Amino acid sequence: MTTDKSYDAIVVGGGPGGYVAAIRLGQLGQTVLVVEKEYIGGVCLNWGCIPSKALIAAAGLSERIKHADTMGITVTGVSVDVAKMQQWKAGIVKKLTGGVASLVKANGGTIVMGKAKLTGAHTVLVTKDDGKTESYVARKGIVLATGATPVRIPGFDVDGKVVITAREAVSLQKAPKTLVLIGGGVIGMELGMVYQKLGTKVIVVEMLPQLLGTIDPDLVKVVEKRFVDAGGEVLLEAKASGCKVSGDKATVTVEHQGKSRSIEADCVLVAVGFKPNSQELGLAECSVQTDQRGHVTVNEQLQTNVSGIYAIGDLTGAPYLAHRAMAQGEVVAEVIAGKRAAADFRAMPAAVFTDPEIATVGISEREAKEKGLNVKIGKFPFSASGRAMAVSETAGFIKTIIDAEKDIVLGVGIVGPEASDLIGEATLAIEMCAYAQDVALTVHPHPTLSEGLNESFKHALKEAIHILNK
Predict the structure, then answer these.
(1) CATH number at residue 215
(2) Which residue is catalytic, options 122, 323, 446, 459?
């Protein structure tokens, strides 16, 4: 059975980018339809950002309790019920996804569950679970917000039990004794350190010369030291060539330093990256251009090469960040509604919720050197922060990169407590084209971690008070 229904806009995908676009469209008086094939909230709310951060918080709390004796607090008989922890996490996910759906509807949006396929520049065919189809018309625009999915690699057949992806990793009912992590990137290290705190022996197999990709090595080393000191093992420039599963165990074959090694594990987490969900959307049939990896190409108004078709979020390429998708969602809604808007962000922050956290924005020190830029570097260690000492979190530092001639803020990198929250001020500084003095001369409350950002900028200007200006 096929029927026709018309809306101002159709949003394909109900994740962070899609639902934000739908809500903003509703606020702007546009009628909007959201088509979601699996669950509102997408990867982020259901098995990505939110559930992983809930587990990170819970595992971190258990770790701090176990080591509270350094503060004079003796705790005995601490135990962790992972299954109950998962129930708590599921409650958070349910509340948030339900809230998102309610907001879409409260702003006049309609949600339809099913698989969407473009049949033209203004038409979408939706196939529901029962096989029935419906055709919908978008008078002003179609927004593609289908996100990305974990990459699978040869020799590692995901069964969801022994060999898993991040999707299953956030829902394990017990902590495995041994976990082999294929890929030492953001998702892998975040989840690997969760289970490490819950008693798991974690072995990381990474093809690159360092963990966490292209983040400055001095930031990464702080996290790697914490991981190794807690019993983790890191194999860099190593290749995982295969995996054999027998019962509830796996044997992973790794090529490292010219030798072959077999590692037995209860669980193998494949976390080597994501790929865009651009298949089966009808892009080729509608002549929508994509790059070699399948990302949809767009301009600053998030328009594709086909008039009336837009794309946002992970589907448009790196960086794969929920807040990037959300920002693009607002922009595309305003563009469709006829407002002047563009995705011309000067600064796009990123946060890694390892222990300790890493957060970056703007240009890194490594990038500055590669580009031959003349920069000044300021650093303030958390070991010199009274607030960091008071909360017993002194590992790490704040690093500021500024233009050596103009003193304009180029980038900031933070590794340490609450880095993900501290990076917001640095993002604003870059977005508003601030000078280093603008931050250095801003009075920060005492005693706080944010003072460290102030001192880092002052250090770049050789005006720091609480550390030597070398």
Answers:
(1) 3.50.50.60
(2) 446
